[in-house]
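User: Run a structure prediction on this.
Assistant: Running it now.
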Amino acid sequence: MTTMYAGYGLLIDSELPLPELAPETSRVPAARPDAVIRLGTVRPPSADALLLPRGFWADGERVGLDVPGVGRYVCERGTRITVEPAPGASADALRLFLLGSALGVLLTQRGLLVLHGNAFVVDGACTVVLGHSGAGKSTLAAEMHRRGHVVLSDDVVPVDATGCALPGWPRIKLWQDALDRLGLPSSGLDRVGAGFDKFHVPLERGALGPGAVPVRWIYVLDRYDGPLRVVPVTGAAAFTILHEHSYRNEILVGELRRTHLARSAALARVARLARVDRPRGVDSVASSADAILDHISGTSPNREEQHAISAATRAVDA
């Protein structure tokens, strides 16, 4: 038995139950899925396969991931993920890598620029916040949500060829200390995985529909010895940032790398990039949110840019 789920602009038919996600009910039962997820035996990589860091491998049109004690995943042509569980692997662990790394590979195969960050809406356009694991991206997104900004996506942010971010699942993953900082209880929340003090926090998206939103601002979270500041990033440094903070950039080889470069160039033309340097050892979630929103208000689109944003949004929604 399979269930349909929706996210990142896709209708996904999954044999694995995905309780973190809401089943798709708005489309007709006979709707053809964009991608399928199935349990099955995964053919090992061939002798000609390219072995990549962190358990990834590329073998023709197949990109695989081997996770010891959890299972083997293979993504094919951006339309199918096959999962072969390891003996004794828990369902939580299987879903953790399926909805993270494997889905990120599938989206990359579909020609999307997949960024490791969070996306939220400010003044009708999308802001993307990037950063390495532990940088505080999700905590900052939760703070923006608390202030009334719609969160489009957490952890995985796919951007299409037009420079629009696709909304993902309506939830944020937060550690216990982040919940405590934001004054949110963990009771009743599902853990990301057994043994993790990290929880799925469901979000309300209000009146925002399922359409994509044009990306206009990108911020990279960093730490340094000094006061909080926002520093614009231009030129070749922008490409370096987009590659460094691409989701699972280990797989960017061959045609995937060429597509990634084209998408990065297109995004750099329409979005403003900046680095948010925060003082080490200081809880700067609220002040970082203030700095980003102040920076956005000082670089708001002019009338022609705002017209382009509105036109792109109408085109996507249509």
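The longest helix spans residues 91-109.
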